[in-house]
Amino acid sequence: MWARSVSTFYNLEVVNTFVHRAGQAPLSIDMDVMHNHADWMPQRDSVRDRLLHPELLSRASTFVTGAMNTYNRAYSPSINTTLTSTRFFLLKDLSVFIPHRLHVDEPFKAPLLQRLSIRSDAGDMASCPISARVLTTMFNDACYLSSVSLRRCVDTTRRSVNYTRRSLQYLSLGSFDESLVDVMSRQFQVEDESHVLIELYGVRDLSIALDSLTTAFGARGSSIDSVEIRYDNDFAASEDRSSPAYSDEFFAFRASFQSGLQIILRYDIARPTWTWEALAHLLPCENARHLGITKGRCSDPREPPADLAQFVAGMHKVHSLLATDREYFDIVTKLPADNPLAVVTFHFRAMEFEDLVFLWHWVRSRRASHPFHLHLKGSAIEGDPDDYRYDTWFMEAPTLAALGTVCVLHDEREFKSSHSVRVYRK
């Protein structure tokens, strides 16, 4: 175990001693660990340079670096050439972040590679640091590859035709359009029980994209089991942190197929490349058993597209429903009354009395033959405890009691009282 943790140390003398005592044993070089352990210490570029020296990297069985810019102690402005000039004789696990400004012109030389993860901060296809030609050459040389994760890093405008198709157990892609799906499907096939997650930030043609996704990964004819509609954002800072490298706001459609395939399509608010109406026509979700309407890190929700409500209105087999933001109650109300709901969960950061009143009206209006289980999660009203008791005793309690007559109610919220300071004066 001692000979596998060289990046734990942020001291050149200790690193050299460690390497000497390790002999010829394979090394684990995790630059993220080095950065974390270097916190509050003086900058020591000599340690970083030693760990990134080709002679040392050639002995690595694992190499990890997530350094995006100079604010990270592990950042190297030449990480791209370091990776392409090193012969990784023992490398099995490679996880790297390559800034979009550092282009990779040659494939990595890692014949024993089993797990590959590459990320970047490219804002568009043209900014991606790796071409499809370099990527496929790398795949052809890595005969033992079983897991691939690619995010914002592959430019598919220039393709290679030299494919050697093999099986993957794990595949995770994040791409600006569906063209990378074609590249990967020509290169690999997925086995039964494989994990496959494909996220497209946009599409060239929605029909072609969906056909490629379902055909390439064995989901054609497979029913969609679960749907999530999530409002979220995605951003990364520029090298000097003065401006964003990219910043996107979107509604994400996530579908989980019974075959195991998961796809995410981003409906970009500023630059939409498809419509919810077209999605409903091309990828029917009427048999999905679970629906989630959620919100990510965004603080201010955006008005959803008008045809998003129509998309939800086409779902008729939903057994479980999850909603995490009151701003999208209107979407919830579009779910047809004929859905055989069994479990409904509302998980809000701070549920208010008005939310309970809305829920009572909504549940009552459905007139279900069998009452479903309604779970209230998150926190109750934040504020002064005395005010909360008033709301509970004189407003919330009767509403909760009324809710309990039209559904099986599970109030699992946590009460968070406001912080108060008592000051004593002489």
Search tags:
426 residues, alpha/beta, 15-stranded mixed beta sheet, two-stranded parallel ribbon, 13 helices, disordered C terminus
Structure description:
It is built from 13 helices and 17 strands. The protein is of the alpha/beta class. It has a domain of 201 residues. Helix 13 links the parallel strand 16 and strand 17. Helix 7 packs parallel to helix 8 and helix 9 runs parallel beside helix 10. The protein is globular, with a radius of gyration of 26 Å.
Please summarize what this structure is.
The chain is of the alpha/beta class and 426 residues long. The protein has helices at residues 12-22, 31-37, 45-51, 54-57, 79-85, 132-141, 179-187, 206-216, 276-282, 306-313, 329-333, 353-366, 385-406; strands at 27-30, 60-65, 93-97, 115-119, 130-131, 147-151, 154-155, 166-175, 188-200, 224-237, 244-257, 261-268, 290-295, 320-323, 343-348, 373-378, 408-411.
